[in-house]
Amino acid sequence: MASASESSGSTVNPQEAAHFGRLAEDWWNPRGSSAMLHRLNPVRLGYIRDQVNGHWEADQTDRRPLAGKRAADVGCGAGLLAEPLARLGAKVTGVDPAPENVAAARVHAQGQGLDIDYRVGSVEALAGPYDLVTCLEVIEHVSEPATFVSGLADALAPDGLLIMSTPNRTAVSRLALIVIGEGTGQIPRGTHDWKQFLSPEELRSLLAGAGLEVLDIAGLSFSASRGFTLGRDLSLDYFVTARLAR
């Protein structure tokens, strides 16, 4: 998860980068400080796979639907999403503003036999064009969201997909993520600033301003009995898929 400093035109917020950098050593522990991300990953990957299959008409039984394609994960942390993207066949670049996260990501990928190009930075560290750009639970941490989204758009190939997710700015998200999540220690304290959350309408506007059109939007919900699920309820968190406007 990510963001970056105001210096050199970067969108990174250094306080945010430092916060997530302190979690680096524990990132791959499914019961540690990133436990919530581990629980989210299957739903994330299911959504990404559905969008990839639909956009490129991939066979649902194909284990490597991204073979021959370039993918970038922006705000990659220690590689929880970058590694599955590589296993789906993509040539992956992962960028994160915290050097500690990038170091942890490189070590873990090497141990898994995966060749992933990890870089310290944010959108300015990308070397597109990429067929797929993912940016999950990141935009709420950056200093200049409009500039950040423009950077994501600039990295996309003409027929590429951008997939984002972010919390909605609602009473539901404040209660679930901050009051309960951070208050009970399920999410590290200081992870979220509710005022930085974006509504779907606000994110749509940013995407349109960067020359992108929305293809799909889906809500992420949580229940004690079912865990995380996708649906129409956008009040907690949501996914957006976009492409360059035609």
Describe the SSE topology:
Blueprint: H1 14-21, H2 35-56, E1 70-74, H3 82-87, E2 91-96, H4 99-111, E3 117-120, E4 130-136, H5 145-154, E5 156-167, H6 171-182, H7 200-209, E6 212-223, E7 227-231, E8 237-244
Parallel strand pairs: 1-2, 1-4, 2-3, 4-5
Antiparallel strand pairs: 5-8, 6-7, 6-8
Describe what this molecule looks like in 3D.
The protein has a single domain (7-244), classed as Vaccinia Virus protein VP39 (Rossmann fold). The protein contains seven helices and eight strands; from the N terminus they run H-H-E-H-E-H-E-E-H-E-H-H-E-E-E. By secondary structure, it is an alpha/beta fold. It is 33% helix and 24% strand. Helix 4 links the parallel strand 2 (91-96) and strand 3. Mean pLDDT is 91; it is low at 1-9.
